[in-house]
């Protein structure tokens, strides 16, 4: 990459200029093709969309039917935002599993060798995968979250407990749900890149997101209260909570911490990807 | 970043210099040094586990050498700005996601360096997989998979080709096709480096051989020289009605003689000419005098015999002789 080598450039190659060189934009285009050309991607994303868009309205309908059977306390603390966006519980599983697969699917099939032969610097592949997957997740979850929210609020009008996106916390929670799921996808993808094995990656992801909170719950309450805010799932979901709960961070504070965890995982993944034999 | 497309004194040359690769305490490649030149087909020969695939992965920057350097045009593979245009490679182990169609696999590779869809269609036609291009790779036969691998290698019209066992799984027609293709690519001035365990195939395709065993270089030579080199010290077959007398005369000259049949001897340690002179001096009639030439396969077995990783039987001189006898 020195100036002297530039002067030795063969005329035929020089004429082609940047033609044929690997660039970040081209790698993103390639990863976009890869993402959509797998049947498993389309199915898993469909599951995430149906879960995100459908579960909120379903829960809303159940609650409206059971309204007079609910305890006064439940009715008093009824939260229209949480009801509408409850589908994220389901969507996060699909997004997480797919995130892991985006990387481990390449390792298990040997595709990663073709990928690294085309992009020998390797890191552009990681950035492109993380970027496209986060963007696709964000857009799809923003749309299905909006459908879920609007549809459930129209159901909640039955007992006049609805809210609207004009309400600041509702707007934050709607966009926040899509942001949380997009970052979660990158976290899962990073874990996949670190362990390079589908079963291991999914176990690590599920353990971190779903098992660790359960373990924390059996600790003494004071310890629990000290630890809980820092757990990735608790920190990340503050951004989509309808009301601020005790022993949690502020919406953006918690989400920032969750992003911090994700960046850490991504950096570890990057270092290992450059170093390890493919 | 200045694009470095330098073509200096080593155009299209693959250079492996003192490369060693260890996995834990197992040495896969041991201080290997060789060059692969453009314009000819260079065969990479060695028994299973000799380190052929590892060496190719090291050249392609997939694995990092423990020590030494592997370069193409003097640059490490990782520093190539447009790798698919410079090097086309196909690895033995399939390196393709089984859930994607052949077309999309090639398209995704092409897109990383701005190669158009037209070229994707072109290489699909070139290797003859049009009819299955839109089908998922998981359902491909071994032969179709190999053809797809070749298509991927040709995508960037590269000046260097590195192919691991390209003939594997191909039918006779496919083997003829790949042989013709590789020879043509070499004739166009490209560097063609292919590994194979099929010695007969190599004899018909390769001009030059790099032979390794247990990660070490055994030979870096032309196909003819390789056979010749392995044949030195090989036996000479002698047929004589006075075989017993000849046997005693030869034994007196420190030659090692095996009786094959009543009138047939196999002689080691002396040349055919020396046998002729001895026979003349002793007034012994010779009916036949034939230096035993080894086939490429036998030469290979002979030279790599001691370096085979997993050997079925003991490797002493008798095994070699038995091989030669069986061939004679």
List the helices and strands and how they pair.
The complex is a heterodimer of chains A (278) and B (328).
Chain A: H1 3-7, H2 11-16, H3 24-36, H4 39-65, H5 72-76, H6 80-85, H7 88-109, H8 111-118, H9 123-156, H10 168-195, H11 198-217, H12 221-227, H13 232-237, H14 251-275
Helix pairs in contact in A: 3-9, 4-7, 4-9, 7-8, 7-9, 7-10, 7-11, 9-10, 10-11, 10-14
Chain B: E1 14-23, E2 26-36, E3 41-45, H1 52-59, E4 67-72, H2 83-86, E5 87-90, H3 102-111, H4 117-127, H5 142-154, E6 160-164, H6 172-187, E7 191-196, H7 199-205, E8 208-213, E9 216-222, H8 223-231, E10 236-239, H9 243-252, E11 256-259, E12 264-268, H10 272-281, E13 288-291, H11 296-304, H12 317-327
Parallel strand pairs in B: 3-7, 3-8, 5-6, 6-7
Antiparallel strand pairs in B: 1-2, 1-4, 8-9, 10-12, 10-13, 11-12
Helix pairs in contact in B: 3-4, 4-5, 8-11
Explain what the structure shows.
The complex is a heterodimer of chains A (278) and B (328). With 278 residues, chain A is mainly alpha-helical. Chain A has 14 helices and no strands. Chain A has helices spanning 3-7, 11-16, 24-36, 39-65, 72-76, 80-85, 88-109, 111-118, 123-156, 168-195, 198-217, 221-227, 232-237, 251-275. Mean pLDDT of chain A is 91; it is low at 1-17. In chain B, the strands form 3 sheets. Chain B has a 6-stranded mixed sheet with strand order 5-6-7-3-8-9, sandwiched between helices. Chain B has a 4-stranded antiparallel sheet with strand order 11-12-10-13, covered by helices on one side. The longest helix of chain B has 16 residues, at 172-187. Chain B is elongated, with a radius of gyration of 24 Å. In chain B, 45% of the residues are buried. The chains are: A mainly alpha (278), B alpha/beta (328). Chains A and B meet through α1, α3, α7 and α8 of A and α2 and α3 of B.
């Amino acid at each position: 990459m020195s100036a002297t080598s530039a002067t030795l450039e063969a005329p035929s190659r020089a004429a082609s200029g940047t033609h044929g060189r690997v660039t970040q934009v081209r790698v993103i285009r390639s990863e976009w093709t890869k993402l959509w050309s797998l049947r498993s991607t389309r199915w898993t994303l469909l599951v995430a969309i149906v879960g995100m868009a459908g579960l909120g309205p379903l829960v809303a309908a159940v609650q409206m039917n059971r309204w007079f059977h609910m305890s006064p306390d439940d009715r008093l603390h009824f939260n229209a935002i949480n009801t509408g966006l409850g589908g994220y519980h389901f969507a996060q599983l699909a997004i997480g599993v797919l995130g892991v697969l985006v990387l481990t699917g390449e390792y298990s099939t040997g595709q990663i060798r073709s990928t690294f032969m085309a992009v020998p610097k390797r890191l552009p592949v990681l950035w492109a995968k993380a970027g496209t997957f986060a963007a696709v997740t964000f857009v799809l979850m923003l749309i299905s979250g909006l459908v879920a929210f609007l549809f459930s609020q129209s159901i909640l009008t039955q007992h006049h407990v609805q809210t609207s996106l004009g309400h600041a916390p509702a707007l934050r929670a709607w966009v926040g749900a899509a942001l949380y799921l997009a970052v979660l996808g990158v976290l899962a993808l990073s874990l996949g890149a670190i362990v390079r094995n589908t079963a291991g990656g999914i176990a690590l992801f599920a353990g971190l997101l779903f098992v660790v909170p359960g373990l924390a719950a059996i600790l003494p309450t004071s310890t629990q209260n000290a630890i809980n805010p820092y757990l990735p799932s608790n920190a990340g979901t503050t951004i989509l909570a309808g009301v601020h709960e005790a022993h949690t961070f502020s919406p953006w504070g918690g989400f920032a911490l969750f992003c911090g965890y994700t960046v850490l995982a991504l950096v570890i993944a990057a270092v290992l990807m450059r170093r390890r034999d493919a | 970043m200045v694009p470095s497309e330098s073509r200096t004194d080593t155009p299209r040359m693959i250079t492996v210099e003192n490369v060693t690769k260890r996995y834990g305490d197992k040495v896969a490649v041991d201080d290997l040094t060789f060059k692969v030149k453009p314009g000819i087909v260079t065969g990479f020969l060695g028994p299973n586990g000799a380190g052929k695939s590892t060496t190719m992965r090291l050249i392609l920057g997939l694995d990092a050498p423990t020590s030494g350097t592997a370069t193409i045009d003097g640059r490490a593979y990782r520093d190539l700005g447009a790798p698919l245009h410079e090097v086309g490679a196909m690895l033995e182990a399939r390196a393709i996601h089984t859930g994607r169609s052949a077309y999309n696999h090639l398209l995704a590779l092409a897109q990383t360096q701005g190669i158009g869809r037209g070229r994707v269609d072109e290489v699909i036609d070139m290797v003859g997989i049009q009819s299955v291009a839109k089908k998922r790779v998981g359902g491909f036969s071994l032969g179709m998979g190999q053809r797809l691998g070749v298509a991927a290698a040709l995508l960037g019209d590269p000046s260097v080709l590195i192919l691991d066992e390209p003939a594997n799984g191909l039918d006779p027609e496919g083997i003829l096709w790949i042989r013709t293709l590789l020879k043509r690519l070499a004739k166009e001035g490209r560097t063609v480096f292919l590994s194979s365990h099929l010695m007969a195939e190599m004899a018909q395709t390769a001009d030059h051989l790099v032979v390794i065993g247990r990660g070490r270089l055994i030979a870096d030579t032309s196909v003819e020289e390789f056979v010749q080199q392995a044949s030195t010290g090989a036996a000479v077959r002698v047929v004589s009605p006075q075989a017993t007398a000849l046997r005693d005369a030869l034994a007196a000259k420190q030659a090692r003689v095996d009786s094959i049949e009543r009138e047939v001897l196999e002689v080691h340690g002396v040349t055919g000419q020396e046998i002729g002179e001895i026979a003349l001096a002793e007034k012994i009639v010779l009916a036949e005098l034939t230096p035993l030439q080894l086939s490429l396969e036998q030469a290979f077995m002979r030279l790599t015999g001691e370096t085979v990783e997993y050997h079925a039987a003991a490797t002493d001189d008798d095994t070699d002789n038995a091989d030669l006898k069986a061939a004679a």
